[in-house]
Write a structure and sequence with these properties.
The complex is a heterodimer of chains A (221) and B (268). By secondary structure, chain A is mostly helical. In chain A, 80% of the residues lie in helices and 0% in strands. Chain A has a domain of 141 residues: MetI-like (MetI-like fold). Chain A contains nine helices and no strands. Chain B has two domains: 135 residues, D-Maltodextrin-Binding Protein, domain 2 (3-Layer(aba) Sandwich), CATH 3.40.190; 91 residues, 3-Layer(aba) Sandwich (D-Maltodextrin-Binding Protein, domain 2), CATH 3.40.190. In chain B, α6 links the parallel β8 and β9. The longest helix of chain B has 20 residues. The chains are: A mainly alpha (221), B alpha/beta (268).
């Protein structure tokens, strides 16, 4: 039997604190995505390289990022590097962990997108006199981003939700950290967690809808 | 005819009343098991021995309580932040988990009289340059989020407006962060501090004086509305002190004079 009386008024007063936390969450997610996309492009290209010295490290990154828990990656960024004397603050460790994860997943997304672009396009661009890098930048990359755009927004949502793992490395300013702080002070677990869940849901939903609208404007033929 | 109706009515009334009034204390006695939430990374109150069995002051306390109730004890490992969810969701009956009896929390959970009291000390690293509590100002410090000393230390940092506070999820993470140099100090209960320094698990950890906090009285917790159980627990704690069992357990796990559980010039 559930014997608990919900005290929403008490929880409602904490909304400003939670919204401050939500901003930090969004900030980390956006930064981790921006850096993740940059690394992912490099990784995707490196994965297509014929040189073993370029291919191998990129493959290790992608494999570890995709096949180990994000919790492990973030924990390692804080305590793992810490044991070697490299001290990342919880904020940086969380950002680094999620960026690492984003880059790994997005690299595969981008690699798939690259494969979907017919090889004849690059050859056509080259035959028009474009150097290799210019052809890649002006002909291939825009198409790659277009194909990978919606899968990338999935990763953005995932990044937002992953920020909640920061509490394991002592993060106390993001939405999950603020939630946990209020929880342990007041013991109003259910109300606070419910509010936090709603905020997470709204942020994630806003991102998906925003991305869909953006895609409709940007990718109209 | 009249008599049977009356008898039947009485019988029905008794049955109904019986079920309606069964409270948590009844449920525990009927089920034959007392489920205690105990924090098991908080030596010497709760930890695991080499064979992974729960041991510690709180474990023994739960066993004593179960024996008094005439039921079996079941230790449910519960991290600090999960004590209330465990209680409310019915996974445990009682929290024997060194829970500080703050007024804020008492709005949610039911607290007994104190069953233990902690003093807090500053734990730091030899090379961190911290000689006492005041030196923590401006440093990066950490503690287990949501503990009595963790909340106070966080408030200290906010009040100083200088330095950084990191709440970790477990005591083990705090010690790891401290030994790695991620944080320069923590405030922790004296019992935990001396047990971790003695264990030698982490190099270079030293205790540097007391933290100027009021004694941290900790209580057993149960659901707020379970007066039957809470009354029983109050009496049980009183009996533990009265019979000398409290001092006996303190000798076993900590050593020395057990802390006074009464507050001068106040009832309860």
């Amino acid at each position: 039997m559930f014997t608990y009386t919900f005290q929403w008024r008490q929880a409602w007063q904490k909304i400003p604190l939670l919204l401050d936390g939500a901003l930090v969450t969004l900030e980390i997610a956006l930064l981790s995505m921006a850096m993740g996309v940059a690394f992912a492009v490099i990784l995707a290209v490196a994965r297509n390289s014929k040189s073993r010295w370029i291919y191998a490290p990129a493959t290790v990154w992608v494999e570890v990022a995709r096949n180990t828990p994000a919790l492990f990656q973030i924990y390692m960024a804080h305590f793992g590097l810490g044991s070697f004397g490299i001290h990342l603050s919880p904020y940086i460790a969380l950002l680094a962990g999620i960026t690492f994860n984003n880059a790994g997943y997005l690299a595969e997304t981008f690699r798939g997108a690259l494969r979907a672009i017919p090889g004849t396009q690059l050859r056509a661009a080259r035959s028009l006199g474009m150097p290799q890098t210019q052809a890649f930048r002006l002909v291939i990359m825009p198409q790659m981003f277009r194909i990978a755009f919606l899968p990338t927004t999935n990763q953005m949502v995932w990044a937002i939700l992953m920020t909640s793992l920061g509490v394991t490395v002592g993060m106390n300013t993001d939405l999950a950290g603020v939630t946990q702080d209020i929880n342990v002070r007041s013991f109003r677990t259910f109300e606070i967690f419910a509010l936090a869940a709603v905020i997470y849901y709204l942020i994630a939903k806003a991102v998906t809808l925003g991305a869909r609208l953006l895609a409709r404007r940007m990718f109209r033929y | 005819m009249k008599k049977t109706a009356l008898l039947g009515g009485l019988l029905a009334a008794t049955c109904l009343a019986g079920t309606a009034q069964a409270d948590k204390l009844d449920d525990i006695m009927a089920s034959g098991t007392l489920r205690c939430a105990v924090v098991l990374d908080f030596p010497p109150m709760g930890s695991r021995d080499a064979d992974n069995n729960p041991i510690g002051f709180d474990v023994d306390y739960c066993n004593d309580l179960a024996a008094a109730l005439g039921v079996e004890a079941e230790i449910v490992e519960t991290p600090f932040p999960d004590r209330i969810p465990a209680l409310v969701s019915g996974r445990v009956d009682v929290g024997v988990a060194s829970t500080s009896d703050t007024l804020e929390r008492a709005k949610t959970a039911g607290f007994t009289i104190p069953y233990f009291a902690f003093t807090n000390v500053v734990l730091t690293r030899e090379d961190a340059g911290v000689e006492g509590f005041d030196d923590l100002k401006g440093k990066t410090v950490g503690s287990v989020g949501g503990t009595y000393e963790g909340i106070q230390l966080e408030d200290n940092i906010k009040a100083w407006g200088d330095g950084d506070f990191r709440p970790y999820q477990s005591q083990a993470d705090v010690f790891l962060a401290l030994s790695q140099g991620q944080i320069d100090g923590t405030v922790v209960t004296s019992t935990v501090a001396s047990s971790i320094v003695q264990s030698g698990k982490y190099d270079g950890l030293v205790i540097k004086g007391d933290a100027p906090y009021l004694p941290d009285y900790v209580a057993l917790i149960a659901l707020r509305q379970e007066y039957g159980l809470l009354n029983y627990l109050d009496l049980f704690i009183n009996q533990q002190v009265r019979t000398g069992r409290y001092q006996e357990l303190f000798d076993k796990w900590v050593g020395g004079e057990a802390p006074d559980l009464t507050v001068n010039k106040a009832y309860r």
